[in-house]
């Protein structure tokens, strides 16, 4: 059974390990019969700064409108990005600030602390690279970036399950290790997981 997939490359440079991982996932998913759209955020024309918070409407650029429309139609969202300073790059955070707006990704209920999750019915895979050894990131740092993307962004908007694949440490990796990571991305793409 095919699943429609949107891939967001959150690394500003497509010519990176993250870019290669996203492309390998895309190729495998398409070869398996899944419709896939890949958006390289570093190549999209949009202001990543939410200038006035939610006090004033900031019109969405055509690129953000296109990505939002694709996400609204997809069944599976894939995020590929490096973990920098414990979390996602500013470009990806800026995308969420600008695109995952009230009325698009969630809606607060009137006179309530609760909200509606407008992106329910989708699953997500996060593939993130780290220079920190994954065990250190988990046990010492307590995975702040993983917690943010899973709980306070994707699940907040109704996307679940959210599965996270952390690959690292990149800085000391060998070509054989990078090839193994690319193969892992390919396998995930083939399975649309």
UniProtKB/TrEMBL annotation:
Enzyme Commission numbers on file: 1.-.-.-, 1.6.99.-
GO MF entries: oxidoreductase activity
Recorded superkingdom: Bacteria
Keywords assigned: Oxidoreductase
Domain Flavodoxin-like fold: 5-181
Similarity-based family: Belongs to the NAD(P)H dehydrogenase (quinone) family.
Protein's UniProt name: NAD(P)H-dependent oxidoreductase
